[in-house]
Request: fold
Amino acid sequence: MRKAQPKKIPLAPDPRFSDVQVTRFINNIMLDGKKTTAYKIFYDALEKVSKFTGEDGYEMWKKAVANVTPAVEVRSRRIGGATFQIPAEVRADRKISLSMKWLVRFSRERNGKTMADKLANEIVAATKGEGGAFKKKEDTHRMAEANKAFSHFKV
Reply:
């Protein structure tokens, strides 16, 4: 039997928006423990989003995260020597985690001068329903739809 799950350490809300989700996102941006740099990248990106669109950067970011949040994903399961991709609903905590990771990952892969530029462009694209992170969500949903026939196996 497995040991007890470790306690979830509550995150401190960020200083500007007093939002725990922002802290989570900043932790995803952060490399090598450089949290101050991650904060600067995020806040600069939100300012650039505001300049591009003329709307509130924070609201745009929230909308972008919501747009790339997956509802279903496929999980591998071995049954009788064959591996099946079985569609499964995503837990609420994992949904947010995946969407944030995808936004950061596809921001890093984008072309741009600074990470703040790349992140700002990805946020704007995700808000419009474009960009790498949104495409990843669509692909995940498409994969789950294609394997709907195996949903009776359940994970």
Q: What stands out?
A: The domain at 20-68+90-153 is CATH 1.10.455.10 (Ribosomal Protein S7). The mean pLDDT is 92.
